[in-house]
Write a structure and sequence with these properties.
238 residues, alpha+beta, Ubiquitin-like (UB roll), Alpha-Beta Plaits, 2 domains, five-stranded mixed sheet, three-stranded antiparallel sheet
């Protein structure tokens, strides 16, 4: 069997690029310095296409596809920055802001929040949709960390890092729609979890500060989610 890598040629934003078979549109775009916004994607974790901010257009198809899970094909022509896409991304952000209680002016994660940064990047200045303002719990039962469900955007980064990197499987998703919550164990308090290793990986990958370290509240310490690929490399080396 040949060990040669099968190469695909395609066009992204009118720019000819090449890719390996099985690569996603997002991977190829980033290799060539083409920016596609994301929230649920994080290098080192599996992709689930949850946030839909990475939607792109493919010539010949009326459907939009999430770049993080759509693989490349020969001759594909992709557009990542059309007016249609910008409008859809702003609407997605509006839905995220309106669904829960994201008040940047009083949030301890302000300035270190990916949701806030994307809103600034895409020029989102106000929300046209009615706010849901659900009464969601804050779980401060853990000795080191707190989970504020009011800030959660259900990206499932915490679920995936706990399962795929730490192997503890503390977090999961419960419910649907407005009742959807990230829960620890069988919907027990985080502090009562017998499977949590207190490693803090879930806190480091949270994009909005829904999970945070009690000792760093208001300290201005930015999160560092980019350690994951290195952890995976070390694990594979073992």
């Amino acid at each position: 069997m040949s060990d040669a890598v099968e190469v695909k040629t395609l066009i992204i934003d009118e720019r000819p690029v090449s890719a390996r078979r099985g690569q996603t549109i997002l991977e190829v775009a980033r290799e060539y310095g083409i920016h596609i916004p994301t929230l649920c994607h994080l290098d080192g974790l599996s992709d689930v296409g949850a946030c839909r901010l990475c939607l792109v257009e493919i010539k010949g198809s009326s459907k939009l596809v999430p770049a993080c899970v759509a693989t490349v094909s020969e001759g594909m022509e992709v557009s990542t920055n059309t007016e249609r896409l910008l409008k859809i991304r702003r609407t997605i952000l509006e839905l995220l802001f309106a669904e829960r209680n994201h008040i940047c002016s009083v949030c301890v994660a302000s300035g270190h929040c990916e949701l806030q940064s994307l809103a600034q990047e895409l020029g989102l200045t106000h929300i046209r949709l009615p706010y849901r303002n659900p009464q969601l719990p804050v779980d401060a039962s853990h000795e080191r960390f707190t989970a504020d469900h009011n800030r959660c955007i259900l990206c499932t980064r915490c679920v995936r890092v706990c399962a795929e990197v730490e192997g503890a499987h503390v977090w999961d998703v419960m419910g649907r729609g407005i009742d959807c919550l990230i829960i620890s164990d069988l919907h027990e308090d985080w502090g009562a979890s017998t499977s949590c290793t207190s490693c803090g990986k879930c806190v480091e990958v949270c994009p909005t500060g829904a999970l945070f370290n009690k000792s760093k509240i208001g300290s201005g310490h930015p999160k560092d989610p980019y350690f994951l690929p290195f952890l995976n490399q070390m694990r594979d080396a073992r």
